[in-house]
Specification:
The complex is a heterodimer of chains A (169) and B (167). Chain A is mostly helical. In chain A, 82% of the residues lie in helices and 0% in strands. Chain B is mainly α. Chain B is elongated. The chains are: A mainly alpha (169), B mainly alpha (167).
């Protein structure tokens, strides 16, 4: 039995559960879950982008970076839990749409990078007030990290929308 | 009204609209840009709204928040309108017949009106109270209303996808 077969069997089992059946047959549940999911993405994405743009000194320059990071980055973690719950329910409702879709795994891989990068940025910024400002090398490294963060978060949003267009069957 | 429909069919029959309709990648691509920019609009304006409600960033004056955040909100809004227009012209007649699309447009106008009223009337004496944590009722009302309206905009936007199948 290959991994694909096992996954497919798992999807079939999941789609047959009571919870999946309820999500499938109640027409307002999936759009509502997707709406909550997108609104949560808006919060997480904006929080990360605001800090990234501040590292580039493109936005809110009069606010010190540590203060800005303290105001925005901690919000990301509890909202990620909301995303985990709504995302899981969406998968339970339509298992094949995601679990048999390579775009979904790309999104999860990018998400892992984004989580690690954001956690690291949050820790480094709070460790010392001028962590990314000490010298030219640090400034370049900070901007590089911010750029990667912007690209990875944008990639997550693109992949998320693309799941709808690459689903099997 | 005649002129309006002429304009709609002018855009819908254009080569650009045809390309977006027929190309497999173009529609999802523009749609992704649309979702991304709306996320920026909603997420960034939420920062301002929560400040007006006195729920976040309360130790920063309102004008410092708006001058720091709104450039991003407006940039996102410009991209959202441009990408939304491209999606719209690809199937203009169908979108106009969709209640959620029409509701979304009106809700965006209402959000703009709410903001304009706040700037023109409620924020006239902003320097007097913008440092307070708890702001006057009109300011809190504007913040709360803004959150409600933008949540409704996103809700309608998602519902458009479920009530009209163009792809």
């Amino acid at each position: 039995m290959t991994v694909d077969d096992a996954l497919s069997a798992f999807c079939t089992w999941l789609a047959g559960t009571w919870l999946s059946h309820t999500i499938q047959t109640t027409s307002w549940i999936i759009p509502s879950l997707q709406t909550i999911h997108i609104l949560s993405v808006a919060v997480v994405f904006s929080a990360a982008i605001l800090v990234d743009l501040r590292i580039w000194r493109l936005l809110d320059r009069d606010a010190p970076l540590p203060e800005l990071a303290r105001r925005f980055l901690p919000t990301i973690w509890p909202v990620l839990l909301v995303l985990l719950v709504t995302g899981s329910l969406l998968i339970i409702g339509e298992p094949r749409r995601s679990l048999l879709n390579s775009t979904f795994y790309l999104k999860m891989a990018l998400l892992l990078v984004a989580i690690l990068l954001t956690g690291w940025l949050q820790r480094s910024i709070s460790s010392s007030p001028n962590f990314w400002d000490r010298d030219l090398a640090r400034q370049i490294a900070g901007r590089l990290a911010a750029t990667v963060s912007i690209l990875v978060w944008c990639g997550i949003l693109f992949a998320g929308r693309w799941i709808a267009y690459t689903q099997a069957g | 009204m005649q002129r309006f429909w002429e304009l709609i069919s002018y855009f819908e029959d254009s080569g650009l609209a045809d390309n977006i309709r027929e190309n497999d990648v173009l529609f999802p691509l523009i749609e992704s840009v649309h979702v991304l920019s709306i996320c920026l609009v909603v997420g960034s304006i939420l920062v301002v709204d929560l400040r007006l409600l006195g729920l976040a960033s309360i130790n920063r004056p309102v004008s410092r928040i708006t001058s720091g955040i709104l450039p991003l909100t407006w940039s996102g809004f410009a991209v959202a309108v441009a990408s939304g227009f491209l999606l719209f012209i690809s199937n203009a007649t169908k979108y106009l017949a969709n209640g959620y699309f029409v509701a979304k447009i009106f809700l965006i106008c209402a959000a703009g009106l709410n903001m304009a009223i706040f700037h023109a009337i409620s924020a006239k004496d902003l320097p007097r109270w913008e440092n307070e944590a708890a702001l006057p009722l009109p300011a809190r009302l504007a913040g709360g209303l803004s959150i409600l309206l933008w949540v409704s905009v996103v809700t309608c936007g998602r519902w458009i996808g479920f009530t009209m199948q163009v792809h």
